[in-house]
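Posting for a labmate who doesn't have an account.
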Amino acid sequence: MMKRFLGLVLLTVLNGCNSIWNRADIPEAVKVRFTELYPTAKKVTWENEPHGFEAEFNVNRRERNIMFNARGELLSSSEEVEAQYLPEEAHNKIRSRYAAYEIEEVNRVVKQQQTYYEVVLEQGTHEFVLILDSDGNLLNQLQDTQRADMQKASLMKLSAPEKVENLLNSPEVRWELPSELREVSGIAFLQRDLLACVQDEEGAIFLYDLNQRAIARKINFAGPGDYEGLSVVNNTAYVLRSDGALYEVANFLTKQPKTILHESVLAATQNTEGLGYDAESNRLLIACKGFDKSLGDNKGIYAFRLSDKKMVPVPVIKVPLAQERLGRAGKKTKNRYSLLQPSSLEINPATGDLYLLDAANHRLLVLNRQGQVQKSLSLDKGQLRQPEGMTFGDAGELYIASEGAKKGKAVVLKFSERL
């Protein structure tokens, strides 16, 4: 009886303060609960969102967002806080991995009895957002446009930690590539301290010395073209052109390499970028950034048989686009094909799994031989601007190459931890 009486008193008070109710469709249960929590709040903006009723207001000059359901139950809250209130582990990660960025804003989000931190990092005009848990573990990284979509519902679209994509571990070593490789598009590990590299426009294989941090040799194999992938099998290098054609460069490390062109049998819309050696089946696998409408809601991975040097015109692996791990929360897509746009393909020699680098969606995918995504790892956009090439070393370490900006340098990062 007393609780009901207090509720009636609150309703009387809040109905006399209509300045905080800018909408007529806010349920009375929501009004009562909000007034109980924030009796002194003024200038409150309300929105009827798909997930509930959201209030936006300031407390001590700091923005706060609260989400209720129609019964007046608190679903989530978001409040702006000082950077000093971040967990220590979060501070350590930001200092070590984003030293060039400034913390512009920090929001503490409470949802489903769990606390998250949304950290906005800025460098000049470049801005992105980190999502961390209460222990400072990095859960996801978003562009600021994605963050705006998520904030419409006070991060209601953010999945629980176990469903959020993981971030690839911190790199062990970083190399800046010379200007000739600013548009690096494919890499292959040859031996200790030596990488073979190709770039978008020039028909040449560059041997890059990781120890000396310099190009050791340049091997011409063809004229200008759009070269996207590279794979080495014994003494032969294979270079993939964007239309699906393959250049076979036999004895490429000798003084007189021999080049043979294998024409493409793929659709013009495929736009091939990924090339990986499948030792188990003695073939090269080709991944397409583009699409073939005849495959429906699938993307195909094709094969070039090394036994007879023939390209198989139908996919040897189909990747269904309707998989949950290919969805992108808070991100609009042009069409279903944009959910998967491989820029590089490799096969992990230890597990046999397929690794697809997706520069457009800024992530690394691990697939089984049936085309099912087993793991999705977000890539750090501050470190890998446009990841285009990937290869495994002798010890299972992963190397990822990223193109540079017009006035920047391409980089290669080495990741030693198992994924």
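Reply:
Got it, the structure tokens are right above this. The radius of gyration is 26 Å.
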